[in-house]
Amino acid sequence: MYKASLRVLTAVTLTSGCGLTPDIQEQEADQALSADFVDGSGMVTVRIKQCPGVTVAEHNTTTCAVDNDFVLIGGGAEVVGEADPGALLTASFPDSSLTTWTASSKDHILAYAHRLNAYSVGLKLAGLSASTLRGSMVMVTTRSAPAEHPSIAVTAPPGFNLIGGGARANWISEGQLLYASFPRSSQWVAASKDHVMAETGTVDAFAIGITTSAIPGFGTLDVNTSQISTFVPGGYGTASLAAPAGWVLASVGANAQGTTEGRLLTDLIPFVDAPADTAQGITVRSKDHRTHDSGSTFAYVTAVRKH
């Protein structure tokens, strides 16, 4: 079984007069959280950090770094609140040095000032420094061809198990919006789309891998991926899934599938009980936007433990 400790790091309060919606005003007192979870062996620790955004804007980008003795293996993004018309995710991805997670969001067609939270998931193995662990890991990325609905999958190199990944949509004018960022066997899949207004763009997929060989001074890691889905007739859809007992969360994935115009991602949160943000697992959300659409939200948990 895992054990968890929750620490409140800082309080962030937004001033009034910034054009906040009631949905955001209700959550002005959000706090930065750091929660540690340990696998059944007591040898694998993950630290999940929430870094609350402080900017209320129509287009947002924010980051969340792991602590110095941890290595980044996952992260997430959260558009605060579930208001109408709401905002949508355009990016949730790791940096090449595996230290910092970046999240981006935007309104679309209908103006909506909002706040964006970023999350990071850091890994620590007993007896290893962060630099030693980082030497047993890899991050690879690839970019799709330009399209109105671009998608791409990046594969973890031979000799590495996929433990995390992310996605970033790239556009020039109207916007490309994420609807998929999830693991599929040894690949991380990323997909975005224009919505209502045409826009050709690309999408980047990111994959984080850890060696399948024994890590000197530690051994090997087991990797497990599970999924769940929920269906809604319209509006926001939420899917939550806990990490298996004895395992610790590595990364969060999501795939929003609509039936007509499409559904889009709004939240990729590495806590199962968002917005409480204390229990190990994930919460993902999608929504239709401007045009009504039913569909399913798929949530993916990748978890690790000592072999």
Q: How would you explain this protein's 3D organization?
A:
- The chain has two helices and 20 strands.
- With 307 residues, the chain is mainly β.
- Strands 1-2-3-8-5-18-19-16 form an eight-stranded antiparallel sheet. The protein has a six-stranded antiparallel sheet with strand order 4-7-6-11-14-9, with no helix packed on it. It has a six-stranded antiparallel sheet with strand order 10-13-12-17-20-15, with no helix packed on it.
- A hairpin with a 2-residue loop joins strand 12 (177-184) and strand 13.
- It has a single domain (4-306), classed as Proprotein convertase subtilisin/kexin type 9 (Jelly Rolls, Sandwich).
- Helices cover 3% and strands 54% of the residues.
- Residues 1-29 have low confidence and may be disordered.
- The two termini are 15 Å apart.
- The protein has helices at 22-25, 130-134; strands at residues 4-11, 31-38, 44-51, 59-65, 71-79, 88-94, 100-106, 116-125, 137-143, 151-155, 160-170, 177-184, 187-193, 202-211, 221-232, 236-242, 248-258, 264-269, 281-287, 295-306.
- The longest helix has 5 residues, at 130-134.
